[in-house]
Write a structure and sequence with these properties.
- The chain is an alpha/beta fold.
- The protein has a single domain, classed as Vaccinia Virus protein VP39 (Rossmann fold).
- Helix content is 32%, strand content 27%.
- The strands form two sheets. Strands 4, 5, 6, 7, 8, 9, 10 and 11 form an eight-stranded mixed beta sheet that branches. A three-stranded antiparallel beta sheet has the order 1-2-3, with no helix packed on it.
- The radius of gyration is 23 Å and the shape is globular.
- Keywords: Methyltransferase, Signal, Transferase.
- This is Class I SAM-dependent methyltransferase.
- One of its GO terms (biological process) is methylation.
- Pfam families: Methyltransf_31.
Length: 249
Amino acid sequence: MHLPATAKLYLLLLTLCLSACNSCLAQQQEKKPASSDGYTYKTASRGGIGKVYMGREIAGIISPAGGAWLERESREEQDKASVAIENMGLRPNSVVADIGAGVGYYTFRIAPKMPNGKVYAIDVQDEFVAALKERAAERGLTNVEVVKGGSQSINLPENLLDLAFMVDVYHELEYPKEMLQDIHRALKPDGILLLLEYRAEDPDVQVKELHKMSVEQITKELGANGFELHRQVDMLPRQHFLMFRKAAE
C-alpha cells in the first residue's frame, strides 16, 4: 500500500517518540530501587557486585584463596594491627565479635588479652569457618567461639557484645543495612562498633577503590542505621579507625 508523504512522516515521528519514551523508561527503571529496601542496582564495576547502597557500590567479598594475603608477613608493618588492638579498649572480661574474621588474624591476637571474656570469630564462608575452628583448637583458646554468620545476621543473641569490629570487611557486606541493624541488636546499650577501612581520601593508599571508604560515607551509612561516631583514631598508616556507639533515641 502506498502511503502519502505526510503519513510516512507521521509514522517516522511516532516511531522516534516511542523509542525515546522506551529509552527514558529503561533509564528510570535502572535507577529505581529494586524494592523498598534502599538498594539500587547497576552494571557491576570491576571488583564490585553491581549493588549500590547510599551511593556506594558494594565490593566483592574476598575468597578463601586470599587467605594468604590476610596473613602476609608485611601486614603488621603496613597496617599496625598492634596499634589498632591497643586502642580497642579491651578488658579481661570483654565480650567481642570479630565479624568477617577470615583466618583469625585479629581473633587470635586479642583472645589472650581477655582471659575471662570471649571472642566470637564470625565468617560467612565455610572454608574460613573450618580454618578458624582448627586454629582455635591448635592454640588451645577456650575463649574463642567460631560462628557461621549469615549475609544479613551475625547469628548472636541480643544485648551480648561489648565490642563488635570489622577490619576491611564492611565495604564487602552484601546487606550492609540489615547487618548494621543486626549488630545494633547484638550490642549492649553501651557497646561499641569499630570499623577499620582503608582511607578513600588518601590517593597514596594503594588499594582498589571499591575496597576503600571515606569517613563521610561511613558515617552517613552508619548514621542511617542507629549509630553515631564516638571516637576516631588517626594513627594508623593506611586505615580509618572509627568507633561508633548506639545513637540516642
